[in-house]
Amino acid sequence: MSLAVQRADFDRYMVPVFNPLEMILVRGEGSRLWDQQGRDYIDFGAGVAVTSLGHNHPALVKALHDQAAKVWHVSNYFTNEPALSLAKKLCAATFAEQVFYCNSGAEANEAALKLARKRGVDINPEKVEIVAFNGSFHGRTFFTVSVGGQPKYSSGMGPNPAGIIHVDFNDIEAVKRVIGPKTCAVIVEPVIGEGGIVPATPEFLQALRDLTTANDAVLIFDEIQSGNGRTGALYDYMNTSVVPDILTTAKGLGGGFPIGVMLTTAAVGNHFKPGSHGSTFGGNPLACAVSEAAFDIINDPAVLAGVRTKAARAAAALRAMGERLGCFSEIRSSGLWFGCELSGALAARAGDLVGKGAANGVLMLQAGPNVLRIATSLIISDAELDEGLRRLEKTCIELLS
To answer: Which residues does the record give as pyridoxal 5'-phosphate binding sites (predicted)?
Structure first.
């Protein structure tokens, strides 16, 4: 069979910042995907926690189809109905009073960091320092990759932006040593994602809230991955007693359609003025229409309760698998988001596990060389969940033999 495009075309035509697996996926439904050859895969990665409602969800397809027949783009010289409708719902459901739209999590964090710096400078020209955490990840723009706590992503491109301080995650005393009058913001993932699915302790988050308030700095929660139902709450801050000043999110909000959002209070957001920041495609009618449809489904108590139920089912199965096979030393989880610490003969072989898993029909992620990362659809069926776990166990057994 002659195919119009093949995996070799990636190496021929694409800038080599990715190294995808050999198959080319062409169709999806629910938590299954199919490649060009018709092989099926259980999706345990959800496009890196993006396809929150699985593939080809009818409500999202309808929203896209209906809006596509109306208007695709009007620019930010004008506004549009889907953008305003979604903004009203986001504010009604959260602490926020204002919304900024963009196209990705990196752009949402870029906006948040610029807003925090703008507010700081409005107060005091020297109030520009940003406190962030080792192991964190906040995006791929030069500002956000510098704020992220993984030097491998920001090295080799010349001087990084100044005024960024990194300390260890969950270390309250370390934060106390570096926060002060020059601090404009602390940015934190309530659950570190790329760094291994590591939840912040409640005491740590409360200390960040207390310290930022005492030093007139803003607290930014990066909920790019942890938001939109992933942890069993609409946003993970709702699982705590801590409310941030700015929350960023993206990924699962669009269910697969690109969108990024910064949520904030009016007191903070009003430090931006017309022209301070912007985005050509931010608030795009198509993106907002699809995201509103996804939001309406996710922000349903029954759906969020289902996330918690399925999460408990999957966590128990993963822990039992680890005990039977000796392959996982720890299962860290936050809703339908798992970090499986590898041990024994699988130690430091997350890449092998992902590759072999794909060959066995289950698509997974890694968070470093020693952590298998799993993020399913929020509404994955029990049958698909069980089948994916069966294929994962088969993969572990094969690699251990």
So the answer is: 105-106, 137, 222-225, 280
Q: Where are the beta strands (DSSP E) in 134-190?
A: 164-167, 183-188
Binding site as annotated, residues for N(2)-acetyl-L-ornithine: 140, 279
Q: Choose the final residue of a domain: 298, 325, 344.
A: 298
Q: What is the pTM of this model?
A: 0.96
DSSP H helices in 234-378 = 266-269, 285-298, 301-325, 350-359
Going by the annotation, the residues of the binding site for pyridoxal 5'-phosphate are 105-106, 137, 222-225, 280
DSSP state of 160: P
How does pLDDT run across 228-261, given as a tens digit for each residue? 999 999 999 999 999 999 999 999 999 999 999 9
Please report, for the domain that includes residue 36, its CATH number: 3.90.1150.10
Return contacts of 146-153, CB within 8 angstroms, 24+ apart: 147/109, 147/113, 147/187, 149/195, 150/194, 150/195
Residue written as token pair 């740590």: 204
Q: Which domain holds residue 243?
A: 70-298
Does 42 share its domain with 89?
no
Q: Are residues 135 and 266 in the same domain?
A: yes
Question: Annotated binding site, which residues?
Answer: 105-106, 137, 140, 222-225, 279-280
Report the length, in residues, of the chain. Answer: 401
pLDDT in tens, 164-219: 999 999 999 999 999 999 999 999 999 999 889 999 999 999 999 999 999 999 99
